[in-house]
Write a structure and sequence with these properties.
The protein is built from 6 helices and 7 strands. The protein has 196 residues and is α/β, with parallel strands linked by helices. The chain has a single domain, classed as Rossmann fold (3-Layer(aba) Sandwich), CATH 3.40.50. Helix 4 links the parallel strand 2 and strand 3. Helix 2 crosses helix 3 and helix 5 packs across helix 6. The radius of gyration is 16 Å and the shape is globular. 38% of the residues are buried.
Length: 196
């Protein structure tokens, strides 16, 4: 297969509705991604206390997970993904980094098998647009956050499922979340939302 054929194949797979294909997880680890946002920037924008309980929805192969887990040495990070293959890749990455306070659960974003109010924070990076019902996903994330919990959503311009900030703002308000802070601009932003 030529490079051109490979790139066309990747483009076709990425443009499909639904979860990003686990067979292309290596693309999510390319250094080029740092041009839009780094794992350090994502972790900085979360501003987590060291004992926070955090949910990462749609972690893919764990590109951001290691940095976030290192920021919460007395806390806990739970990775939830619909694809078990992505969780396996993330687990290998976190084990190589010797990060231990992490759990893994295969889960549908519309029906998380998690207790109400179990997390201090949750975050998603270029994931919400892949979920078939983003509004229902936001309601479910609201449910698993404790009162005053933080939901951080990052969108990037290279994502074919990009959700504009204006649309996210409306959906978040419908779910009962208040927009607290926005980092970045245009199509490359992080919106921090707060549960009352």
């Amino acid at each position: 297969m030529s490079l051109r054929d490979l790139l066309r194949s990747i483009q076709r797979r990425v443009r499909q509705d639904g979860a990003y294909p686990h067979q292309l997880a290596f693309v999510l680890l390319l250094p080029l991604r740092r041009l839009f946002i780094t794992p350090q920037q994502v972790a900085d924008r979360l501003a987590l206390p060291p004992n926070a309980r955090v949910l990462e929805l749609g972690p893919g192969p764990g590109y951001l997970s290691v940095e976030v887990a290192r920021r919460i040495p007395q806390g806990y990070l739970l990775l939830a993904d619909i694809q078990m293959e992505m969780l396996h890749q993330a687990r290998r990455r976190l084990e190589r980094a010797r990060v231990e306070q992490v759990g893994y659960v295969q889960a549908n974003a519309l029906a998380l098998p998690l207790a109400e109010g179990a997390f201090d924070a949750a975050f998603l990076v270029t994931v919400l647009g892949e979920v078939p019902e983003p509004r229902a996903c936001l309601r479910e994330l609201y449910r698993v956050l404790r009162p005053q919990g933080l939901l951080s959503i990052t969108e990037q311009p290279i994502d074919p499922d990009h959700i504009p900030l204006s649309e996210l703002r409306v959906m978040a308000e419908e779910a009962g979340l208040a927009l607290e802070q926005v980092f970045g601009r245009g199509k490359n932003y992080t919106a921090n939302l707060r549960k009352p």
